[in-house]
Amino acid sequence: MNQKYTVASEKVSQIIFEAIVKREEHLKDKIFEIDTDLLSLLRAIGLRVMSMLLTMLTIQVTTQAKKPGNENTAHS
Questions:
Q1: How many Cβ atoms are within 10 Å of 41's Cβ, its own excluded?
Q2: Terminus of the chain with fewer CB atoms < 10 Å: N or C?
Q3: Can you give the pTM of this predicted structure?
Q4: Contacts of 12 (CB under 8 A, 6+ apart)
Q5: How far apart are CA 48 and CA 26, in angstroms?
Q6: Cβ atoms of residues 59 and 52 within 8 Å
Q7: Residue 11 confidence (pLDDT) above 80
Q8: What is the DSSP string of 6-28?
Q9: Could you tell me if 42 and 20 are in contact, meaning their C-beta atoms sit under 8 angstroms apart?
Q10: Model confidence pLDDT, tens digit, residues 18-60
């Protein structure tokens, strides 16, 4: 993992840990189910973060392209 994201990873891990401990009454009986659920959750988080990044980049590129002097060079 990229060292630039270590602190963020630690914060997210703590948030998820606290959420699981708070909501799961029989943790030792559900640990394998939680492992599977956690994998799905992390995939969903990754998808959401990538979606947010791509949306941000789309807005940046569109804004830059609309600035005066940036003519559309695409031809039909």
A1: 14
A2: C
A3: 0.76
A4: 45
A5: 29
A6: no
A7: yes
A8: HHHHHHHHHHHHHHHHHH-TTHH
A9: no
A10: 999 999 999 999 999 999 999 999 999 999 999 999 999 999 9
